Fold each of these.
Amino acid sequence: MKRWFVWMLGIVTLIAVPLALAQKGDAVAGKAVYQKKCATCHELSGAPKAAIAKMMKVEMRDLSSKEVQAKSDEELSRNITQGTGKMVPVKGLSDADLQNLIAYLRSLKKPQ
Ligand code: HEC
């Protein structure tokens, strides 16, 4: 009886842990979305693409910078789905895409 319980606990943990991690967003999956949807204007490192900034006549901040990283996940999501300043909203992102993107953006943060 006891051994059965330990087995069940093990199985539940094996299922629950990846699920919990998936909910927080996956930076690797986020990078793939970023490459498709963001990399025309933002470098993979988060740095602005100089040609785009020049063309749009805007000072773009580095997405890895303190200022951008200080924004909450909600604010970043809003910037992406509703646009911010001269950035137009990015369409066609699922909730999971968005969470993965946020995880990727957080992974760009430079160690202080
Ligand atoms: C067509 C070009 C373009 C695309 C595509 C684009 N962006 Fe932007 N993004 C910009 C520009 C330009 C700004 C600066 C806007 C301003 O400050 O007026 C910006 C600003 C931002 C900001 C706010 C930075 C700050 O200063 O607070 C975030 C966050 C951001 N982009 C994330 C993304 C993500 C994530 C994607 C992909 C899902 C994406 N962007 C796609 C052009 C783009």
Amino acid sequence: MLHVVLLETALELVPTEITAKKLIQKQASLRRKKPNEILLDQTYHGQAMTQLLNGHKRGRPDILFFCLQSLLETPLCKSGFLTIHIHLYDGRIIEVNPSVRIPRNYERFVGLMEQLLLVGQVPPKGTALLKVIQKDLSTLISSLRDGYDTALTLLAVEGGHETRLGGLLSLIPSDISIPVIIGIGAFPHGDFQLDIQGFFDLHIELDTEVMMAWHVCSEILWLYALKNDITSKRRSFNSQQNQF
Ligand SMILES: C[S@@+](CC[C@H](N)C(=O)[O-])C[C@H]1O[C@@H](n2cnc3c(N)ncnc32)[C@H](O)[C@@H]1O
């Protein structure tokens, strides 16, 4: 199983410290919402965000949008060998149902995320496609290890151990039941909090320059699918199904 954990994701509602700002009040009223019911977004709130602690790491919901588009609905995801969790800046964790179809339209994605953060799950009733769960990051990673001492925990980070694609391919266990847990920062700038780094055994750097989080997601996902020959597994499963 491949478990992707998007870390310190720059997704949150406008925090109380800046809800009184005129620009935010206006934007909210145009959308017929309260200021603390809309997503924080650097594009619109950049100036107000200079007042926020760690403002440079926050208010980039588009990063999550592209990461989810890269991971969901892929052959690996459809095969049931992928889980995705979204760890937020405030420490809350969102569980992603692998069968969710994220809107292709960014405005609709924003509305969905606002509902998720306000209500705690989407859809609000019935089977959750996205849900805030009562776990912290440490508990989540322990549960994803699923009791395997051999589980691999990787953190993708600039300054980590220089790792080539071939090296990464050989790190991935051949036994698909052994969990591989990869942490990827879903924030625009800055470093991981120190305690977060400690949850991952191996820190890997995949390029000499900073990469987009969604490119890192894609690289890991497709490499993992290659190592486990997911296409062949899917073909043989489909041909067995067709025999009945
Ligand atoms: C835009 S970066 C965030 C910038 C931040 N300086 C950092 O490295 O964490 C988004 C995420 O992509 C991953 N990433 C970016 N460049 C990388 C690289 N060269 N090697 C490995 N992972 C990288 C990291 O997980 C990072 O948190």
